[in-house]
Amino acid sequence: MKENSAKSIAVGIAVKIVLLAVLVLVLIFTGRRAYTFGYQIFAQEAMSEAPGKKVAVTITKDMSFGEIAKLLEEKKLIKDKNVFRIQYLLSEYKGEIEPGSYVLNTSQTAEEMLRVLSRADEKETETE
Asked: Are 55 and 76 in contact (CB under 8 A)?
């Protein structure tokens, strides 16, 4: 009977070790993904180096920002629409996107694209 008790204790310890190892691996994986996501938000990396490639996009007034982000991702102007959405929410251009036709470049950062899409340069010129 002592052998069964010792075996059950050993099995219990082995199960706890395996569960702990799985938990550690999940935490490492989740931590790495969270770090990478955060880094992408604040690093503002362009898709390519200058001079890049010019890409025409048209934003209509009925498009949601999610649709705009999806369009830019499909046109290979941004890497991740979810990262771009967070960059937009944290930017000074939130709520400022203007409908129209634009020529963006794959060497532009998210902030540069948001500046163009909000027509910030034109607005600054009008106020001067």
From this structure: yes
**pTM for this entry:** 0.75
pLDDT in tens, 20-36: 999 999 999 999 999 99
CA atoms of 30 and 38, how far apart (whole Å): 12
Residue 73 makes CB contacts below 8 A (sequence gap 6+) with 79, 80, 81, 84
* 55: helix, strand or coil: strand
Q: Which residues pair with 101 in a beta bridge?
A: 58
C-alpha distances out from residue 64 to 28, 79, 97, Å: 35, 19, 10
81: helix, strand or coil? helix
